[in-house]
Amino acid sequence: MSFILETTDMDLGDTPIENIFINDYMPMANGTYVKVYLLGFKYAHDKDDKLEVTNNSIAKHLDIPLDDVLRAWDFWEEKGIIEKHGSDRVNYKVKFLNLKQLYIKNNINMFNQKEEPKKEVKYSTQDLIEANQMPIINNMFNQIDYIMRRQTTPSEKKLILEWIHDYNMNPDVIEKAFFYAVEQKGIRKINYVEGIIRNWYDEGLTNIDAVIEHFRKSDEKYYRYQKVMKSLGLNNRPTKKDEKQLIDKWFDEYNFTMDIVLMGCETDKNVKPSVSYVNGTLKAWFEKGVKTVGDIELLDKPTEIKKPVINIKSKRPLANKTRFHNFEQRTEMYTSEELEAIAKRKREAHNQKLKGEA
What residues contact 216, with CB distance under 8 A and at least 6 apart? Predict the structure, then answer.
């Protein structure tokens, strides 16, 4: 007697992912790194010896460069949740560590060890006062308070100053990290924001243009929001829900390119630009069949107006001709002297007639 379990022709199985990964590790990574981890974990869970899996096959499956796969494993190894085995730079083995066991082990170690001293803050209260006198730093702190919906504490502000120094980050990049944490992830924790900044630093994203370009590759919709809001000068506040819906409509329903959308933004010359104003422009273009930047240039080209024919002598428009224009006036057959003589004779005949009647 034996027992046989039927298998399906399609892969309809399940891959269990620990909540520790979803809650603690996934938020700190970009989308590409998460996809690499999940696909690799699936292959490890399936344990199909007939299937040869390499970093090259993962790159092909996810349609991403091989270097992105290798960087992903470097990232997860740095976080301590995988181990790489082998000397080959590309074809090495990846061991996924048990996160539950790792969690328990770390907590036991923390319990057995004495409490580690807190990180020494490099900046003093006087440093913070002097930094606040700089407009760019003061504006950054004000923006962070607005984003966090609370006043940041002096110790938090000192920590933020350390980020600028340690990670060589511009203040506007620090602001963007807070924006991204709150707006996209819904997290208002200083440590989480520092994780974002650290990841950006690791990837060489130390200025705002590099960060926005990073969004283009990892988070297309968020990249669109940032480009539009920056074009309108509204990038100092989170994008509202209704604004996101309008921006999504331009790309998803109207199928406009970023160039067309940015040209639409340029039409808003109001003191207070708005996404709704630009929406009116783009909607009108869509209804007129605009599909390329060239179509917009044709719409802006002035139409040629036909001018009326002008009589050079009179400088007035010529009237429409009728059959009476063929009639030649009799006066055109006499000279001025002859016309004067005719008039004189008529006056004399008229005077003679009056005398006879008298």
Answer: 223
Angle, to 10 degrees, between the axis of helix 135-148 and the axis of helix 125-132? 100
225 lies in some domain: no
Show which of 218, 247, 262 is a domain's final residue. Answer: 218
Check whether residue 106 and residue 193 sit in a common domain. Answer: no
Q: Chunk the chain into consecutive blocks of 10 residues (it has 358) and report each block's average pLDDT, rounded to whole numbers.
A: 55 73 79 88 75 84 89 84 82 84 63 46 80 89 88 89 86 90 84 90 85 81 85 81 90 91 91 91 91 82 57 53 49 64 75 64
Q: Specify whether the CB–CB gap between 200 and 173 falls below 8 A.
A: yes
Q: Is residue 156 part of a domain?
A: yes
Alpha-carbon torsion 226, 232, 238, 241, what sign?
A: negative
Q: Which residues pair with 83 in a beta bridge?
A: 95
Task: Let me know whether 57 and 143 are in one domain.
Answer: no
Residue 349, domain member (yes or no): no
Determine the structural domain holding residue 51 and report its residue range: 19-112
The verdict on 260 and 239 lying in the same domain is yes
Between helices 66-78 and 31-46, what is the axis angle to 10°?
80
pLDDT at 299: 77
State whether 103 and 126 are in the same domain.
no
When divided into structural domains, the chain yields a total of 3
The span from the CA of 25 to the CA of 28, in Å, is 6
Listing DSSP states for 157-183 in one string gives HHHHHHHHHHTT--HHHHHHHHHHHHH
C-beta separation of 146 from 237 below 8 A: yes
DSSP string, 87-144: S-SSS-EEEE--HHHHHHHHHHHHHHSPPPPPPPPS--HHHHHHHHTSHHHHHHHHHH
**SS3 of 39, please?**
helix
CATH number at residue 44: 1.10.10.10
Task: Give the integer Cα–Cα distance in Å for 42 and 38.
Answer: 6
Amino acid at 68: D
Do 187 and 130 reside in the same domain of the chain?
yes
Mapped onto helix, strand or coil, the DSSP state of residue 56 is: helix
